[in-house]
Specification:
By secondary structure, the chain is α/β, with parallel strands linked by helices. It has 2 domains: about 5-135 and about 360-415, Rossmann fold (3-Layer(aba) Sandwich), CATH 3.40.50.720; about 140-345, Dihydrodipicolinate Reductase, domain 2 (2-Layer Sandwich), CATH 3.30.360. It is built from 16 helices and 16 strands. The chain has helices at about 15-25, 45-50, 65-70, 85-100, 110-115, 120-125, 140-150, 170-180, 225, 250-260, 265-280, 285-300, 305-320, 360-380, 390, 395-405, and strands spanning about 5-10, 30-35, 55-60, 75-80, 100-105, 130, 155-165, 185-190, 195-200, 205-210, 215-220, 235-245, 330-335, 340-345, 385, 415. Strands 7, 8, 9, 10, 11, 12, 13, 14 and 16 form a 9-stranded mixed β-sheet that branches. The chain has a 7-stranded parallel β-sheet with strand order 3-2-1-4-5-6-15, with helices on both faces. Strand 13 (about 330-335) and strand 14 form a beta hairpin. Helix 3 (about 65-70) packs across helix 4 (about 85-100), helix 8 packs across helix 10 (about 250-260) and helix 10 (about 250-260) packs across helix 12 (about 285-300). The longest helix is centred in the last third of the chain and has 18 residues, at about 360-380. It is globular. The N and C termini lie far apart (about 50 Å). The model has no long low-confidence stretch (mean pLDDT about 95).
Length: about 425
Amino acid sequence: MTARRVVFIGAAGEMARVAVERFAKADGDWHLVLCDIRPEILQPLVKRLPAGRASVRSLDLYDHRNLLEVIDGAALVVLGAGPYIRTSEPVITACLEAKVPYLDFDDDVESTQHALSLHEKAKEAGIPVYVGCGASPGMSNVLVADAARELDTVENIDLGWLVGDERPNVGRAVLQHLMHIAAGDCLTWENGGPVVHESYVETTTLQMGGGVGEILLYETAHPEPVTLPRRYPGARRIRCVGGLDPAPFNGLARGLGLAIQDGRLTTEEAVDYILDVLDNRFFGNVRALRAMLGGMVAQVRRGESGAGALVKFLVLSALRRRYAWRGGLIARVTGTRDGRPAVAVRRTPVGGSDTYLVASMGTLTGTACAAFMVLALDEAGRHTGAFAPEDWADPEKFYTALERVGTPRHEIVESVR
């Protein structure tokens, strides 16, 4: 088998398709083996790629023998199938056995911790295991590393993400992850050590770029506060905050998340209901409808959003009208420079449907993943072990990789002090 093969597992997903298409824009003659349990869905994607650059394989990632056969001799295996709390372990296990490099865009804390615990096994296998190589985590970690370089000491790190109105184009794995972080334990870093908060409870405001401005975001159970303390152990606080736009979507997520936590809904029932809502159908599951409205009303009562915004959301949804998409990433790092308090900020400067990088959650995550793929192949043979993005991805090299997969330089990052 040729060493010029890149195997992409779960290639039919929305973010994965973006990653594949944009990776193919980079220089190099890598052949992409696109794998999915539904291979027929991949044919339109193959037709959009340069002739001969990709082939399609049917693959059930839980079939260990078949998985080993597919990844044998690959230069890189990329896992795009989620949720990662179920999918990453079998693929990483196979990559360790086959001794082939692994990369994913895992955004779940538990599976990230498991992957990083395999550092010594990956070193013994002589391969890198790169986890969290998407938008958040992923590009967000790189923005932190970039901003922190301006400071002599790091005290507080706030990472922020915002996702806009993507109705109806949202996949099940994305919604399963949203339900996973909308309630329950949130492992974070506070007062110089790990603590557990309740996810989606604590709030802060950050000044996002891309025309968004100052916006309220919620602390969420994401991997960044778990991985970044290894690089910045002296930091007092490291937290990841995020949110959905328009604001009532946050109430929807919180209400359904609490209903799952309380046993009033299963995760699959909640996901099914969100898919109905994204298609502007609200009344299929009365228990879910009550949970959603309860979350939205509680959001208004807490002053996190106004009653007018909620009414507007419900009316526009009933009329099947969407909001203009807004979103992006930000990293705000505080500390000292030359003995004085200082702040360094990195954020995505533009966003919206007319942009390349931040046109949707899919384009942001997929394009970042494609850039990490390029960087991983450039760095072949240099790293062995298990790594989060801040451990191995140099900011300038990553920004250059984003350009190589088609991103205009002016869309990548802006610096704010």
